[in-house]
Amino acid sequence: MEGFQRYGKEIEEPFGIEKSACMYMDDGDRFHTDTAGEAKKERQQDRDYKQALWNAKLRDNADRENQRWAGMEKQAREQEERFAVWRATGQKYRNNTTSAPFNPVTLGIEVSSRGDALRQNDEMIRYRAMVRMKSLNDRNNGAHNPITGAPLPSIDLPRRPPPPVEYHSEYYPHSDQYL
Length: 179
Hints:
The chain is an all-alpha fold. The protein is 54% helix and 2% strand.
């Protein structure tokens, strides 16, 4: 029986691995027993990572809030400058006029060309309403009362109001169309 006998170190350590082999591991590393310490180290790394994310998020939010406040302060400064110019020149006061030449407190139309145009527009609305009323009466009722047969009085139209002296398209857009 040749070749089946062992002599030397492999009899004392049948599963021993040479120190130069790639599978070799020192007994201190192989029999490592501080698993609680390793778990604690992993938990600490996780905590540090989450804390770093939280700090980055807080920093980003603080930067964004600072930019927002800086923008609001800039807008307030620009608005105050604009108000100062308006106060100095009186520009805003000139724009503080009513959109219609009508005073809702006194219920009166102002005496101006704009007021004349508004008055003429109101008169034309009343005139057109009378023309519509006469047209509907003539077409629907005819000249006689259908129940009694008596002749119906005709509706007299008022005079058509004259156009305003100065034309304002803003208050009288249909100057050519009266009906």
